[in-house]
Specification:
By secondary structure, the chain is of the alpha+beta class. It is built from 22 helices and ten strands. The radius of gyration is 44 Å and the shape is elongated.
Length: 694
């Protein structure tokens, strides 16, 4: 090396760092630290999976670009007037510019991947060939590295001047292309935050492209000191889009990553270092030169002032970070309050679930939200609930379980150590950000409490209604008993008089038909009065026990006279014996159901059939079924058939099925109805009783 080459190596500088040198050192150091730290976070979260490799490679390349520039700036700052160690400078330039060469294809490739993520109509078949074509210019990298390492040393831009304009043109084209992709994605976003992110990111990339065009194509880097700062700004410009991503990661856990507060404090420490190096140090030297004050004393005094201000600055920083992290809480506090108010104001669980699903979907801008209580869970949801309880998951992250549920995310609703339901999210993956995942995880606890409160309120309302209904029925029963007793005695007298009149042949010859009609109507009224009395009091206690077969056969004997020719079939696979009171109540149930079936088929099909059957089920309970092939029960009235005095018959009392429901309750059983049962007709009543027998 000759003395003539020295000006090409280093520009003589003063013993003190200039603002430009400080900006280089701090800017490139922060750029390298930020990008390499994000690469580490991305690697820990995703590893080397296929989709994330491109993003990871892009971050590493930008980090190495800044790291190489930082190493070169350190050499220039430390080796003032020293010509040795050029291998350090050349190695730093090789690392920086080789990494820079990978930036355009990786940036375009990453944008193609993100485009495919967020846009279902993206032309994915063109992505692979376009991405591969972007890597073709990298074939020149061996020549570039050898050129940068060769002697004599020159600044990289001068040494690679023949490639400068083509490379800058390629770089600007990629930045503009990526900006257009970002703006397209912004129009596709439904969530305002994601839309704003892509708008700002695209504008930043477009601005960087214009900056490179101005600096290196239009020659702005030669505009004196301003050109030097412009050149530094272009070299540091890659920090801007990364800072935007970092902000979204830090505030919203974007891409499901987490940036710790320590990195933010490290960045603030770098700013403090700049203030010290360029501020305190330069100011103390200025006072020493102008007023002959000792620079070390002034510097110590200013450092003391900085220490005194450190406390307020720290509190100011922490306050800002706290506001930054909690500013979104207000957006969801109202949602939590609305969910709680809806549960407290309504005992209708179905109505509350519908309201909560709609509010979650609207407030969080999600595609589909479903709340499934544990008692309504089907096979896939029940399996997910068991899995969550076994592993105590707050969020179900088993891919197979999520696939069975066709869900993006699933959150168990925990209440007092048990999962009372599931919160399932479906829709486009782009809508479910990490921040929304955290909100849903917190809301799942509130929703679990709300569901339990709603269920308890519903049970309370139901109990109050049942008590009111029972009080009303008790009053009605007392009135019915009074009326029945008052009517029964005159009816007995009328029937007795009619029977006496029939003993007179002349009266019978002239009024026989009328007397038969009177007797029939008296018998019908007696049956109605008997039903009123049966409804108003508990079942009568029989003198002895009876088997189910004996009960059914006695019922068939009673209704046979009114069957109108309908065939009555009996199939008793279970024939237990019941105690006296249970036998009496069960006989009343079977009799009313059989009479109801006979009356249904009399106006139905000509092949009228009534079927009575019994069996033991898998749980050991007795099931008694009474069915017919009549016209069936219309859906509109199916919920009312057990109500007292509800009837569709012209001359019915509406008490038969009401008595059945009451006796079944007294037997601690359950009754259900199915209609139609085949070919759009028929009705089947099923009574389920415990196997407790004599």
């Amino acid at each position: 090396m000759t003395p003539q080459t020295l000006p090409l190596l280093l520009v003589p500088v003063s013993p003190h760092l200039s603002p430009l040198e400080i900006l280089k050192l701090v800017g490139f150091a922060m750029g390298a630290a930020l990008h390499l730290y994000l690469c580490w976070v991305l690697y820990r979260r995703y590893g080397f999976r296929r989709v994330e490799r491109t993003l990871l490679g892009l971050g590493v390349c930008i980090g190495l670009w800044h790291l190489g520039n930082f190493a070169a700036s350190m050499y220039e700052s430390l080796h003032v007037g020293f010509t040795g160690g050029l291998w350090w400078l050349k190695g730093a330039n090789v690392i920086a510019y080789v990494a820079l060469a990978f930036l355009p294809p990786l940036l375009a490739h990453a944008h193609f991947i993100v485009w495919g993520w967020f846009d279902e109509r993206a032309p994915r078949r063109f992505f692979r060939p376009l991405a591969l074509a972007g890597y073709v210019p990298l074939a020149l990298l061996p020549w570039v590295a050898a050129k940068l390492w060769s002697e004599p040393y020159e600044p990289p831009i001068d040494k690679l001047s023949t490639l400068l304009l083509p490379f800058i043109g390629w770089l600007v084209m990629i930045f503009v292309e990526c900006a257009l992709i970002d703006w397209r994605l912004a129009r596709r976003q439904q969530a305002a935050r994601e839309r704003r992110f892509f708008e700002v990111f695209g504008a930043t990339l477009f601005g960087i492209g214009l900056l490179f065009l101005l600096t290196y194509v239009l020659g702005a880097r030669h505009w004196g000191r301003f050109g030097l700062y412009l050149d530094l700004l272009a070299r540091l410009s890659s920090v801007a889009p990364t800072a935007i991503v970092s902000y979204y990661i830090y505030r919203y856990r974007y891409l499901e990553l987490v940036i710790r507060q320590s990195l933010v404090y490290a960045a603030l420490a770098a700013v403090v270092m700049m203030v010290y190096v360029y501020g305190i140090r330069r100011f103390s030297l200025f006072l020493e030169a102008q007023y002959e004050l000792r620079s070390d004393a002034v510097e110590a005094l200013l450092i003391l002032v900085l220490i005194v201000l450190a406390g307020p600055l720290r509190r100011l920083t922490e306050g800002y970070l706290h506001r930054l992290l909690t500013s979104e809480v207000g957006l969801y506090r109202e949602l939590v309050a609305q969910v709680g108010d809806a549960a407290a104001g309504s005992g209708d669980l179905a109505h509350f679930i519908e309201f909560a699903e709609r509010r979650l979907r609207e407030a969080l801008e999600l595609g589909e939200v479903r709340l499934i209580p544990a008692e309504e869970a089907e096979e896939a949801a029940a399996g997910a609930l068991r899995l969550a309880e076994d592993r105590q998951w707050k969020e179900i992250d088993d891919s197979a379980a999520l696939e069975r549920l066709d869900a993006l995310a699933c959150y168990p609703l925990w209440r007092e150590g048990r999962a009372v339901g599931l919160l399932i999210v479906r829709g486009a993956p782009a809508l479910l950000t990490a921040e929304k995942r955290e909100v849903l995880m917190v809301l799942s606890g509130h929703i679990a409490v709300a569901i339990e409160n709603c269920r308890l309120l519903g049970e309370k309302v139901k109990l109050e209604r049942e008590l009111a209904a029972r009080e009303r029925l008790a009053s009605l029963g007392q009135m019915a008993a009074t009326v029945a007793h008052e009517v029964k005695n005159p009816l007995s007298a009328i029937k007795s008089i009619t029977q006496v009149m029939r003993e007179d042949p002349e009266v019978t010859r002239e009024y026989g038909r009328d007397l038969d009609l009177i007797t029939g109507e008296v018998d019908r009224l007696n049956r109605s009065v008997s039903q009123l009395l049966s409804f108003s009091r508990p079942a009568a206690v029989a003198a002895s026990s009876a088997t189910l077969g004996e009960i059914v056969r006695s019922v068939v004997a009673i209704v046979g006279a009114e069957s109108g020719g309908a065939r009555i079939e009996i199939d008793l696979q279970a024939d237990p014996r019941f105690s006296g009171d249970r036998a009496s109540a069960l006989k009343e149930v079977a009799l009313n159901l059989a009479l109801n079936a006979v009356q249904a088929v009399q106006t139905g099909r000509p092949d009228a059939r009534v079927r009575i059957e019994s069996e033991f089920d898998a749980a050991g309970k007795i099931r008694l079924r009474v069915g017919d092939n009549g016209i069936g029960i219309p859906p509109a009235i199916r919920e009312k058939i057990f109500d007292p005095f509800f009837t569709t018959k012209q001359r019915g009392t509406g008490l038969g099925l009401a008595i059945v429901a009451r006796r079944v309750r007294e037997l601690d059983g359950a009754i259900s109805v199915e209609s139609p049962i085949e070919d759009g007709s028929g009705t089947r009543f099923e009574v389920t009783l415990s196997s407790e027998i004599e």
